[in-house]
């Protein structure tokens, strides 16, 4: 399995880049942001090798978070890798994850190949699992704030002031600490 690639962009077409890794060119389907990168630029990609019939296709992502969301999306019935890639191309992964948790089909239906019913299926199947993945982050931040000397109540109040779009544990902790420092 090819888990990641580090190389230079050799060429491109409308949906994929050819990444030169030590003289070997890998055709990698990528989203719009990566397609906009310049030829000759060095890239690091997290990848997924997809087997469909007798065809192998490689999909690439700038972050592990994008790859994880892609893998979740392709598990949903009716969502193939190209549709999942289109969904991720239209909306940043953190916003997309939050939209799914909140039950908002808007960002999903903007992608080519995703209609209202498919968007609702994605929300139904993934909202619980994505919410569960973000819940441990809350516990980690609360525990860290308690270890720093704040009460559980103070820590929980500070976390309520942190935007839901911030899901990274370190960023949530920083934002909570900023909220606590502004407290009279």
Give your account of this protein's structure.
The chain is α+β, with helices and mostly antiparallel strands and 184 residues long. Among the domains are: 1-62, OB fold (Dihydrolipoamide Acetyltransferase, E2P) (Beta Barrel), CATH 2.40.50.140; 132-182. The chain is 51% helix and 21% strand. It has eight helices and five strands. Strands 1-2-3-5-4 form a five-stranded mixed beta barrel. Strand 4 (42-52) and strand 5 (55-61) form a beta hairpin. Helix 6 (116-147) packs antiparallel against helix 7 (152-160). The longest helix has 32 residues, at 116-147. The chain starts with a strand and ends with a helix. The model has no long low-confidence stretch (mean pLDDT 88).
Keywords:
184 residues; alpha+beta; OB fold (Dihydrolipoamide Acetyltransferase, E2P); five-stranded mixed β-barrel; 8 helices; 5 strands; 51% helix
């Amino acid at each position: 399995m090819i888990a990641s690639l580090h190389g230079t962009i050799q060429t491109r077409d409308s949906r994929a880049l050819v990444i030169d890794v030590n003289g070997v060119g890998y055709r990698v389907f990528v989203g719009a942001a990566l397609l906009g990168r310049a030829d000759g630029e060095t890239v690091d990609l997290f990848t997924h090798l997809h087997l469909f019939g007798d065809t192998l296709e490689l999909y690439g992502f700038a972050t592990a978070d994008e790859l994880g969301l892609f893998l979740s999306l392709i598990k949903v019935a009716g969502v193939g890798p190209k549709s999942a890639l289109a969904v991720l191309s239209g909306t940043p992964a953190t916003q997309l994850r939050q939209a799914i948790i909140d039950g908002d089909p808007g960002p999903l239906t903007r992608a080519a190949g995703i209609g209202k019913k498919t968007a609702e299926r994605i929300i139904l199947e993934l909202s619980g699992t994505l919410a569960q993945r973000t819940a441990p982050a809350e516990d980690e931040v609360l525990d860290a704030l308690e270890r720093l000397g704040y009460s559980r109540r103070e820590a929980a109040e500070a976390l309520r002031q942190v935007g839901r779009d911030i899901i990274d544990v370190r960023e949530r902790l920083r934002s909570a600490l900023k909220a606590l420092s502004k407290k009279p």
